## 1
Amino acid sequence: MADRSLEGMALPLEVRARLAELELELSEGDITQKGYEKKRSKLIGAYLPQPPTANGAAVVRCRLQHSEGAPRRMLQAGNIGVCDIRDAAVRERAASTAGNRPLFYFRFGVDQALPPERRAPVTPSSASRYHRRRSSGSRDERYRSDVHTEAVQAALAKHKERKMAVPMPSKRRSLVVQTSMDAYTPPDTSSGSEDEGSVQGDSQGTPTSSQGSINMEHWISQAIHGSTTSTTSSSSTQSGGSGAAHRLADVMAQTHLENHSAPPDVTTYTSEHSIQVERPQGSTTSRTAPKYGNAELMETGDGKLWTRSMKVAYNILHKLGTKQEPMVRPGDRVALVFPNNDPAASMVAFYGCLLAEVVPVPIEVPLTRKDAGSQQIGFLLGSCGVTVALTSDACHKGLPKSPTGEIPQFKGWPKLLWFVTESKHLSKPPRDWFPHIKDANNDTAYIEYKTCKDGSVLGVTVTRIALLTHCQALTQACGYTEAETIVNVLDFKKDVGLWHGILTSVMNMMHVISIPYSLMKVNPLSWIQKVCQYKAKVACVKSRDMHWALVAHRDQRDINLSSLRMLIVADGANPWSISSCDAFLNVFQSKGLRQEVICPCASSPEALTVAIRRPTDDSNQPPGRGVLSMHGLTYGVIRVDSEEKLSVLTVQDVGLVMPGAIMCSVKPDGVPQLCRTDEVGELCMCAVATGTSYYGLSGMTKNTFEVFPVTSSGAPVSEYPFVRTGLLGFVGPGGLVFVVGKMDGLMVVSGRRHNADDIVATALAVEPMKFVYRGRIAVFSVTVLHDERIVIVAEQRPDSTEEDSFQWMSRVLQAIDSIHQVGVYCLALVPANTLPKTPLGGIHLSETKQLFLEGSLHPCNVLMCPHTCVTNLPKPRQKQPEIGPASVMVGNLVSGKRIAQASGRDLGQIEDNDQARKFLFLSEVLQWRAQTTPDHVLYTLLNCRGTIANSLTCVQLHKRAEKIAVMLMERGHLQDGDHVALVYPPGIDLIAAFYGCLYAGCVPITVRPPHPQNIATTLPTVKMIVEVSRSACLMTTQLICKLLRSREAAAAVDVRAWPPILDTDDLPKKRPAQIYKPSNPDTLAYLDFSVSTTGMLAGVKMSHAATSAFCRSIKLQCELYPSREVAICLDPYCGLGFVLWCLCSVYSGHQSILIPPAELETNPALWLLAVSQYKVRDTFCSYSVMELCTKGLGSQTESLKARGLDLSRVRTCVVVAEERPRIALTQSFSKLFKDLGLHPRAVSTSFGCRVNLAICLQGTSGPDPTTVYVDMRALRHDRVRLVERGSPHSLPLMESGKILPGVRIIIANPETKGPLGDSHLGEIWVHSAHNASGYFTIYGDESLQSDHFNSRLSFGDTQTVWARTGYLGFLRRTELTDANGERHDALYVVGALDEAMELRGMRYHPIDIETSVIRAHKSVTECAVFTWTNLLVVVVELDGSEQEALDLVPLVTNVVLEEHYLVVGVVVVVDIGVIPINSRGEKQRMHLRDGFLADQLDPIYVAYNM
């Protein structure tokens, strides 16, 4: 090892170079100690001076003794073509600093002549954009302010007496289970904000590029020559220099690193080595590595920064790719991937890149999938064209590997070649190779990454001249001198850590002790211990580190901080850092810390160091403070307040502007206009030492790096461009810079600006740290309903109870409301250690926000307050006093609107050879068919395999009906007019029993049989229908007969109360004496019972005349005749389903292929295969069947095609429904089966209701069904406004089929009963021969009867009797023509009147809100909404783990607010299948409401929004 005596020797250049090589060979084990000494003495023998005098000996001895404790090594090498540094000066300096020699010692060229510090004529204050925090918690580093806590407690005291008006959310037990304390690791309460630093100086005049003359060669050589010692958990390095580059070598030669090996760190890969290294020291003396605290001091012998950097530079340029095609050329970008505990290797790689003239891009080590933001870093690397990543051996080993041992490509990352920079892996450069070193110029020196508010990562380019100027400005501002010791706790890859710890330290040959984050987590006092141990002059820390030291210092006796002349607080720009500084000073003042030592600074990736408080010797000069009104700040103005007030913000100055820079403050939005002196604006800086651009983003660069501030008159302030710093603040008295927040942390709520950091501080001051972890709290805003809404997410301690959480959340809301006068939209608590972290342990803010918005945050407690903080809802609609009918009529005439009425074809005018018309009764039609076409097959029933299970010809049906009639009369002793309940599964028996009843003169009622697996819930409905219909007898099969009398049935209902039960499996052989013929066509033919969507059981009376008219209408619309085949996949118990299944075939003579819907559960393709096999042209199904096919066959279309499924013959596929057409379902069904030949025009819907079982049905000859888009907002006001597809708030509505022949429709106002124009939404009224004749009810509610079945218009045509459907809809005349040549009127059904919700004076349809909610999150499978005491209740079914339940609460609230302007009152999360659905696939919302009010839903979670 080169000893000190070489320093003063005038060795020739080649001897120095050879010595450097020898040293390297020894350190890398290429030569023995003995060989080294032999060669070395041979080399320098000729130049050795005479034996030293006594004085000289003392100096050497002193040095040697000192170096026992702090070993270091120097390596001489030539000057890199820089002005000579005289030997005498070197000797003198060596002697003067012998006692406190740096461990890692880099000399960095001449000091540049910079103007003396003068305060710039600083322009008015400004607001900051760009950099609130790199998505992380820059707020996390904050120490709790006692002043603020008192304010918060005072604010809360006001609310003490108030009781919470909102019930506590309820959770299912499984969700409340606490994590056991044993299994629990406390989260990292640190905060590594991404804004790692900040600095400041003072300026005069405009910056010029005169500094361009500074010789870059001079700079690098000196840099690398001087030496800086990095002390970290990593191998230590030394530095040296070369050739004309003599100085650089010097520096690097003396470089020396210490290693504090710390326990493994979750955020970095460490190489754990604790070794003792033997070192020659003049004579060979061996020493052990001294230990201190938790850190172990280590020396390794391979640390010459210069030679190692040279080696790296040579290998990058010459050993990657081929000679003809090198992979990396000068100017290319290269990634530096080093863990935070290896600054030495990182430094070598960084300077190696500078020497090779490639551009280093230092980034974090990718931590597989857990690393929030790693993907965005990958995008940055891709955009920079990075193909090579330099890394250390230990880091390389720690990266995730594929089974083949290769490093996989990380998500979003370009393909990289990983290159390890350890010396043993590199080849030596030839002796004649030297890096090409130019003057400092405008080439990019390095790229620093910066994470934006939205999580995207940008690369800020810093030129070589800016780098050099910045180092010089920092040297001047901080008064750095050679050989000072600096302790750096910050991330050395970027920001303050990089600028001070890697760059400026080398320039000034300082000794740097780097404390990695992993060590800080284990020993939070390590930095203070190092300051004491090495009598460090400077320390670079964040508020977090000061806070940690406060918490941990109690056991330490021997702390002495009197050596510190400067404690740089990197996040001093955070307004809340002042409390950390004050608290730290209070505690450590007794341990030698002086007030004037604390130097907060402000920095940003774009402007580098913005301002820094200068170290001063005058302890009487107190730092600048401002007590500002928080209320004033929200309006962007500075109002000085008193500290007694609750809502004040105390800010400290961050010193003066940097040397050579000008600062001004501009309005944060719009034109960069200068702020007035009492306004807060974004600080902008004009200097050489700033970033130059965002790499590859010219537009954003222009907006940030090329800003020309203007005065109020519009005149530019300067001809030079300014850079936006992203900091909000102002320039105060004496040119002191004050920062009150960051642009990235700005939330503009209702026109007022709030800073996320301020909100965090208030939240933390509520029972500080008793309940949530300090530094593990995130505040951000989300845009909902045209305004920003504040969201707070915090990690809660594992031992908090449900009640504690709710209590704490309520208090936080009250505190923020009192102090900031702003409402919090959502407050979420997550389990400890679950929020995404940045590499240095802070919260990754944009990632947290992303998780919140996509519903993947999995909170354990959520409190939403939309009622209190959403104040920009549109005004509720005021109902106007009623307008008289006459004026409505006149109004419609004047505006040229037609009255909304339409009709199907006139039955009387249709000429057809319908033989069945001559019969008045269906029983007669069946007898006629049995005589004329006895063997014609009317019905074919398919089983689940698609084979024929049963079939009926005309004569078989007639004979079977006769036997049943005999049975009813003889065994049942029934009279004509008695009611008979038919409880059959879908099939042939049901049809035969129906006609048997008609033959016997009885009135049949079809009833769905109870489900064998679910008797308890299905049997009571059967019993109710049997009782309400007053059935004298019950007919069924033997199997169901046993079920009705079973023990399970007895548990559900009183089985003794059943009427007589007849089993039709055992029929009598004889025929009836005569078949009953009704005396009057208006007598009752059958009763149709159904449960409506509102949960009402309603039976309607169908007369013989209505039944025949109904069948005739359908026959004409669908062109049915005996040679046709129709496939029916419907439940045959009520409405159109029953009519198509049982009646139409007998009337029209066509063959019905019957497919029971239940069979599709075992074979979803059954219906479509039957349609294909029988070449059916017309088919009918329900929505539930269509949904089952869409979901069940989605992936099987290819295999179905291979099986020969062909739907090209289908002319009409009608969905039978009593609701608004489900357009999304019909469209996806059409698209899915388009490849199998299904024509999209074939799919249509029908519409029926209780008063008229089928009003519309598509049929065969009419025009295709049309779709219109209406404005949903107008619809809420009962107006119909057509808009273009894709318009905002547009709602697609599909026509519900063509109006049936013989049906007339009018749209009437449900309140006034007056007719409406076609631009209004109103109730659909219908007049037709097949209207039902009334409700069948045991209560005999006559008023309802007359209102629903016998209504008349209040004006206009007051003679016609109409039936009210109870559905809202509208009519539109289309451009299409009907079969009769007239323009076609289309009916659009919007929803049931009973289900429509009146909220805020407007009419909402549940299906619209439900559709929005189902779209909100992938785990929501179904949704239903209803109102409860003016609150909107949303019930969602969760398909996922119960942990996801709380994610849905904010998403549901957001989407309903955004799309419907409604505040959700209660969100209920339930299991799949809880929302009741009837046989037609319609939701039973009123049943659900009753279940909710009776607390029968067993919800996973109920959230009551405040």
Note: The longest helix spans residues 802-820.
## 2
Amino acid sequence: MAGPGGRTWRDLLAGRARKRKSAFRSGAELQEAALRLLDRHQNLNDLLLEVEDSVKPGGQGGVEHQEVSSESFIVSVLQEQASRLGVPTAILAAKNAVTNIERICQASASPFQVPLLNLDQRKRLSCLLQTVKDLLANNVFCRSLFCQEMWKMKDPPVLEAVWHLHRGDIVGLGELLESNPAAPAVVEWLCNSLCGLCEQVEESSRDVELAGRILSDFAILFLQNGFQQTSELGRKSEFKNVPYICHAVLQRMLTWVLDAVGKEKQEEVSTLQAMRFWLNVFNVSVYKSAVHPDSLQQFFRHTLTEVLTYNPLLRVSDAIHMQKEWSFTRTCSLLTTLYRKMFMAFSAKELICQLQQVLETHEVNWQHVLSCVSTLVVCQAEAEQPFKDLLRHLLIKAFENYDMENMITAFLIARQAALEGPAVFMPYSEWFKASFGSSGGHHGSSKKALVFLFEFLSELVPFEAAPYLKVHIMYPPFVPTKHRSILLEYITLAKTRLADLKVAIEDMGLYEDLSSTDESVQPQGQALRDVEKALQIFENTRKIPTSVIEASIFRRPYYTSWFLPALLRPRVLPKTPDARMAFIDSLKSADKIPSNLYSTYMQACCAMKEKMLQDESKVETSHSKEPVEQLKAELAELRTLIVDQAKYKDVPAQIAVISDRLTNILGHSSHENEAATLNSPIQVDISAPRLEPSHQSVVDLLLTSFCQNLIAASYFNPPDRQGPCLSLFVKMMCGHRNLLPALLGRLCQLIYHQGPSLNDAHILGLAAFVIHLSECRALIPEVKASCGISEPVSEKVLSISEYWNCLLVCRTEESFAFCMRFCTAAASYLMCKFPSYSCEDLCALLPPSLVKKLQYIVPRLSLGARGILCEEAKTDLIWSSLSCPSLNYKRASLCLWKQARFQELLKEKALQLSFREWLLLELEVYPEKDILSASERQDFHYWAIYQWYLPAPSASGGCDGDLEKACGIIINTILDSSQRLDLGSCGQSKMSVSPDILCKLQEMVLELGCRRKLLSGCLDAQRHFLFEILQERLKDRKHSSALGEQLWRQQELLLHRRILVGLPASALIMTCRKGKKTMLDCEDFFRFVNLELKNVCSRGYALSYDITAHFFRGLLNASLDCEESAEGVNDVLTACQTRCPIVLFSAALWWPRLQPVLCSQWKRLFGAPLAEELERLRERQSSATSFLSSGMVFPLSGPPWISAAFLHCTIQQQSPHGRERNALKRLGTDTEQLLVSLLFFSLMDLISAKIAPKEGVDFQTSLEWSLAILQCLEERGMSWPLLFHSAEKDPSKYCILRSAASNGHIRLLPVAFYSLTPCFHQELLTREQTFLYVALDLYIQLLRLFVERKDLLWQSPDTTEHVSEAQSLFFPLLTVNPSLYPFPCHWQHPSCSHLPVQGRGSLCRCLCRQAACSHFRAERSCRCCCLAVVLLVQDLRVDVVTDQWPSSAMSLLCVLQGDPLEVISTARQFLFSVIPRCPAPSFGNIQPLLATCEELDPELGATLLHFSRPAAAMELDEELVLF
């Protein structure tokens, strides 16, 4: 009790003691006197508020004074008063305490009672409670009466006061609650107080901590009593009403929250904030060890059940119609917060089991159930598979019992989960296909199951949204053929529903994404997306997409009403035609755009050019600004969560919000492309990736946010302690399929084009982003990477890991530095992010190309990485070295390289850099821009080849110490590198060979040659590994087209020749021992030349100079190993005459250049006269020159075709025009083989002039020379047709000439033959009985050249392409669907039967009208059609209705009446003229050819049959008229 001036009772007493000596002899006397005084002036209520220490040290000089104990004093006063009143002291104390509490609680200035006390009330209550504690200690306080008296107060107790009683162990809340028999009133008071507490906290932030402690303590008590376990029931049996009260309070408060869920927008903000404060009760961390784990689980299970079953008024039909509004981002935040807090107590599997149990046993609130599904799949990454298992279980039960409830539950859950995007759950279309799209589905077991499914789907139809109906129509359930009517009935019903919704199936887009359930996309919006996709395809193929062509025919309403207006939106046309203009022009040329519509479009574009659309552009920019700003704000909020570990649990929800904002932005973009289905590759132009400005800004925003989040999070925690936040962010981005093209294109710009200019933070962020993209690789389709050129072969379909390999190139000093920095950052981040992962797990996440680049770059740039590592750096140095301000990437990469864990990772087979891959990377380097100097590069190559890969085992990509194997790998890699299209070089193949690598190959080949000399007697030395490697590459080649195969083979052989010329010349020839004699073996070289190398000879009968000279130099060098060098050379050249005559023919062609080289080399090596065979070659050249210049007799020595080769080449090189005819006359009489050989060489030149005009051979000159030789042969009556006999059919003395010619020239011999018809005389028919056979055989070959397209080099590349395309287009079309061409045939002719079998009877019908042409691809297709007609039905006397052809096609038809067709016509007319004059014996030889002739040219075959009769041949005796 306070005295004057605010001094306490003790102070007064102590002061008096100090002033004078006490008049009382003892303390008892003093106490008795005090009591008498209090009798007259006592106030027990104020007395109980006095709280002081029982002993207080004081006085002076260290003297302690006897103090009067206030506690004992108060007890004495209470006892005295109680004795007077005749009541127990404990009861009096309890009543007085209640009175004090009531006074304190009523002292508030607020007119209404509030749950929290003010500071003065709190101080006074604290004094009272301290006194009560002392009374309890002295056993003079009755708790039970105190509890009863508390409920008798005028106003209910204040919640904070009750908490202080509970917290101070004076009266527990349970005891207080139990003392009130009116349990419902207690529940009412407690709930009101708790609600008031939550609301008061929001008004005053100072009391948040106190309110949180109050709420936590009460929540613990509620759970301990409201959800008791069996083991606790006996211990708490004294409480009968408390469990009910606690349970009821929790239930009532949950209802308070759930009532607000449905009307969140109507509630005041303060009320919602109060409810969010109450939701802290559901924080698992509140209970820690205070509550039994089973009680906690029971509480959360009960709460989840209550939420899911709360107010189940919505019907299933409502759920079907409204479930899109219940996605995660659209669900009330109170509900999602409650779910997320409850989810912390369970695993995803446990939650889904609880959900399943509730669905099976209760009536549910579908809004709460489906919003729970959405929250679960968004916030629990591992929920996808348990949900799939649940759906499978529901379908099984549904079909077992034919239960509609399980069916609808499965469908609703599948759709709801799919609403959250493919990043968290498979699209609905994929689930529907997987569940019902095959015979193995649940509905496939019986007809009853099938009927059940379609009955269910039919019942859904009246409530279905259009996107789901489209899925069911486009991906219908599998139905056996016999039950097809069930499916058709459903489709009819679904289409009717679509019609009611004003969504026609015909208005579906060409590339509509059926995995989306966005109903807001109208046909015009979908048409815009279709246009963008069609333009994308057109840009890459330069062809009108097939889907557009089909839509123009089969879906014309959509095409004309939606697609064309979307395509022909007026705009300012660019000066240089872009892809859209080219696409429109192609459609116009193909008559796919009506003329009036096209004219209107052009006029509108002209009008728009004048206005320039400046104002409209500003409007569009401001329109899209708001969603982007919202996205920025949400990304900023995400950053605050990522840097705080305590807030990681909120990251999934925030990412879901970002995803929703992203959807809003992309949805408003008029250039949005949602066209790609789950399996369609993403188009990326590596050379110049094109991005929509709106998409690029969004992608930049997302990438910037990722990098900033990574850097910010790394400032506080290393990657392994940053949680799954960044992974979820990237996964969310991958879920937006329409964003992926822009994302991958932007990464191409940043990494491939701008990589060296990026700073360290950018590189680190992008490297980590690539790692997380690899985590989500299942969500990313393949990438169709192109290099911007029109050839389709320039495109490559790559996985996402291969795509990084294309972007990370190592060619220049700058690109080497960037690649090392990027790959080091990526690998380091991965290892720091997942330190506990095994090597196998890391291997699955890390793109192999990144590790392989490191294996290539680090040893190349760091000497310390070459060789065996002896030390291991500390693991934590990796991330710290990347994070330090002064970043040295060479040091960082070496630090990473030396990590034992990284070295273990390199042992994984998928990550090992093989010798071949190392070579491919090294061959890409530009030596002049290399980061290494020439000497440094040479040292690196020596280490890599001889010290690393050569001794390494093949299992790790090495060569097992096998030098021959190493050579094979080098050769194959050089060829592969040269053949492959380099995306980074815009599709140009690389024909040059790295001189450094070639130098190492030369060293190895020389070393192998030395070894073979030592092992010359072994079987291994008898095989030439070099030609084995080259010929093995040419075996079993398969290409998509004959033209592609031929072009590949020619380029391959040119590369073979280049490599052979680059190797030591002696490597072409082997030495072997026969007895005691060393012999030269050229068989492998001869075989390679005869089979392959001769086919890339443009002259047909001679190799190029480089390989010819190389062989002869090698021959002379190799002869050094022989005991008799001249004899060895003679033997080889003699063998050439029969085994490889093209070598000698080549020597004849190049002898003027070859002679000085060989003579000089022979003199250097031997200093003796030339070998005999070399001398003979020189003599033949000299004789030919003398014969032409001085008129000497031409000597015949050796095989006549060799002399003919020298004579022919000398004539071509030296003889003036016209002198060769005189030379022919001066040849002797016994020169038949010489003249026929000359004719052969001249015909080869004639063909070369056609297919290789750049070789300098003139066609007219060659033709005149050939005719002159033929005239000479005819004048002398010599036989020459045997020259044209194939070796297979009739081996002749001239087969050696044919064997030396290239296959291409031999195939074109029919052209050369029929070019000679002016010199064919009547005597030839009677003198040469085989002439008709030869002429007919060559005519058949000539037809096959065109019909079967055997020769693809005769026509120009453009013509060849059109011919191939025409035949590949119209023959299959007519075979499969002749109804596409309902027009009447204007012409037919029996001669059409000579066409290929697949085209008979169809050609006329498909090509004579413009309407047929319209089905092909634009104007180019018309050219294809015309070429097909010209090439295949030329000279068939067909009356073509030319007025039906487009003008462009008619002009081309006239232009192509060229030489190839004239040859066929000439040959045919010649045969028709010759056949009647041939003697009867001539027809005896042609029987094997008749069947083929009748098939290809029935008219000619009939003529042959007619005149082959002896009588008919005798009747006709009219004069032969030749042309």
Note: The longest helix spans residues 614-642.
